[in-house]
Design brief:
By secondary structure, the chain is of the alpha/beta class. The protein folds into two domains: 23-129, 3-Layer(aba) Sandwich (Rossmann fold); 140-291, Dihydrodipicolinate Reductase, domain 2 (2-Layer Sandwich), CATH 3.30.360. It has helices at residues 5-16, 40-49, 72-75, 78-87, 97-103, 117-126, 155-165, 224-236, 243-261, 269-290, and strands spanning 30-35, 58-64, 92-93, 106-109, 131-133, 169-176, 181-187, 192-197, 207-210, 215-218, 267-268. The strands form three sheets. The protein has a five-stranded parallel beta sheet, with helices on both faces. Strands 8-7-6-11 form a four-stranded antiparallel beta sheet.
């Protein structure tokens, strides 16, 4: 189950990047639709984007609820958030992704459960709409059923790790005890970056950078900086993070799980990504033969 995630993301990245192009900034308001109304992000994003004071040039106008019946974090919240978006923010709720694509200029794929992302993304890509795939998170633990353990809450710490360190992570080793869960990445040149989950302890998302002459810390600034980049994406068609970096982030998290399964042995990201690409190529070839 776990190994499907990295090749799944590679397939989304390969298919979606050529289709997001918007050569020029647009003066008109960009109409956005949301897929997956089962996360608090849909409320936070709509509240910010639709607020005239923020002058985003974008407006969320419609949504497709989606939802995963076998995933409580989705099934238990989709009705509540759908009702709130319809009644408070005036969104049109539609019955299919195909219908949604006809009503909007761009799509935010928000489904809290990552398993349907590829299937949902393919419909948007086929319609030629710009697509922003976000990984939503929830709860106070880095683990959730059906998902690799760092892919949900852990993404909040892994993304800033790569923002600071950049690409070039070579190996990942994971050490897990009752009280601490740590993934240690070794980057080219001998630099080390760590992800630490205190497993029930304080869950602030603080980044600490150790330099030769001093230390620096950074704390999250809410959703606004993220949404600024999302708006830029819909206006320009240029993803805010290079595909290579995003792929390496997913490889880091997958490698952490594989290292844990191997008793803490270092796992090569290059090998993991190469294997994932092979699986994508095989899947693509198989699909082509069926057509």
């Amino acid at each position: 189950m776990k190994r499907i995630w990295l090749p799944l993301f590679l397939a989304i990245a390969a298919a979606s990047l050529p289709g997001v192009g918007r050569a020029e900034e647009q003066a008109k308001v960009i109409r956005l639709g949301m897929i997956g109304l089962d996360t608090s992000h849909v409320i936070a994003f709509t509240s910010y984007l639709n607020n005239p004071k923020n002058k985003t040039g974008c407006r969320v106008v419609a949504g497709y609820p989606g939802g995963s019946p076998d995933f409580p974090a989705s099934a238990n919240r989709v009705d509540k958030f759908t009702k709130q978006l319809r009644d408070k923010y005036g969104l049109e709720i539609v019955d299919s992704i195909e219908e949604l694509c006809k009503k909007v200029d761009g799509i935010l794929l928000e489904s809290v459960d990552g398993r349907p992302h590829l299937k949902q993304a393919k419909i948007v890509i086929a319609a030629g709409k710009p697509l922003f795939v976000g990984c939503d998170v929830f709860g106070s633990s880095s683990w959730a059923e059906h998902h690799p353990s760092l892919y949900l809450y852990g993404i909040h710490a892994v993304e800033p790790l790569f923002t600071v360190m950049g690409t070039g992570c070579e190996t990942v080793r994971r050490i897990k005890t009752d009280g601490v869960d740590m993934a240690v990445g070794v980057w080219k040149g001998g630099r080390i970056g760590t992800f630490r989950d205190l497993r029930g302890g304080k869950t602030d998302f603080t980044t600490i950078i150790y330099g030769k002459k001093s230390m620096a810390t950074a704390n999250p600034a809410g959703y606004a900086p993220l949404l600024v980049e999302i708006v830029k994406f819909f206006k320009t068609g240029k993803p805010p993070v290079p595909a290579e970096e995003t792929i390496e982030i997913f490889a880091f998290m997958s490698a952490a799980d594989e290292s844990q399964a191997q008793g803490g042995k270092p796992v090569s990201l290059e090998r993991l990504i190469a294997k994932a690409r092979e699986e994508v190529n095989e899947r693509t070839a198989k699909s082509a033969r069926k057509q």
